[in-house]
Amino acid sequence: xxxxxxxxxxxxxxxxxFDAFFRLSTxxxxxxxxxxxxxxxxxxxxxxxxxxxxxDAMRQAEDVTRLYADEHKLALACSxxxxxxxxxxxxxxxxxxxTGLHALGDTLSDQGYxxxxxxxxxxxxxxxxxxxLVYNYKRGRFYPFxxxxxxxxxxxxELQLQTLLSPxxxxxxxxxxxxxxxxxxxxxD
Length: 189
Prior knowledge:
Blueprint: H1 3-8, H2 23-26, H3 28-33, E1 37-38, E2 41-46, H4 52-71, E3 75-80, E4 86-91, H5 94-110, E5 117-126, E6 129-136, E7 141-145, E8 147-149, E9 152-153, H6 155-165
Antiparallel strand pairs: 1-5, 2-4, 2-5, 3-4, 5-6, 6-7, 8-9
């Protein structure tokens, strides 16, 4: 934070960390071997802004993602949740979904709005139901989210998954940063 930002009470959004994002793609075979099966979708959650420049940047990022989705025959869905966060979801093979969502994040970041990227979400199925791997853009780490019912989660299963995931992906060590993403567009899948 610069002196003038501190003086005028402005804060800067932390830039997203993309480095670990593609580790999910390279670790997919290992996740399958451990019983976690990719559910064929992924989504990115963005913080909303009324600023016209952000609206334009988001539209451009969605257009880039739409072009990618059309080229790779992926289904694309854009929606806002009840808290007005913007979700962009892709449905298709893991590699294509991960690359498409990275293109969205990269485009927003290039426009100066990388700080609006909050999380990427990837559903996996296993013997215990659906588990979401959540990628926190600010921290550059993943964490498991295993919802069991509306507004309820299986924390014991999440801790088991932490142990399973740790050798494969950078996992968020601070459990208080494992935010539940209840109102996401992939819950119904």
